[in-house]
Amino acid sequence: MKSEQDAIPHGDPLALFETWLAEARASEPNDPNAMALATATPDGAPSVRMVLLKEHGPAGFVFYTNAESRKGGEIRANPRAALLFHWKSLGRQVRIEGPLEEVPAAMADAYFASRHPDSRLGSAASDQSRPLDARATYLARVAALREAYPDGAVPRPPHWTGFRLAPERIEFWISRAHRLHERRLFTRAGGRWASELLYP
Asked: Which domain holds residue 48?
């Protein structure tokens, strides 16, 4: 656990996130960019799943998905979400909330083309989140695409895209002994960040 000398400072939360993510990349055994993505229907029914952060910066946090999946449908209907990073090796969490917007098609094309050929085939063959009669059906669709595109260069399906979350709230959490944890919440208004400590 971190010492009290490593307190969460006020400042630029995006720069602090970059520092924490770099430290997680050095200490987490698997997928330091893994994050829980929470979405909800228009009437407030929530759902959550793990996805991978693929890009981040001043404009926000980017992930990719099948827009015809459950999460894609919820995002289209209610374009707000929450993210959670949990780095157990560091005893840290970061929670991020804000509105979502779809990334430009050229950006989605470039990322899709950068993926492993098998990942491109798997995504193109999947009707994500919809009922599947047998796994063999899905694998047969992957095999058919592999035959049609032996180099794996299947085009990006139009429903496979990316979304960027523009942060309005970012909360940093540090585990402390005896559950005396430390929390700092950053909120953005008018392009400026304010912050305050929260009780654990």
From this structure: 4-116+158-198
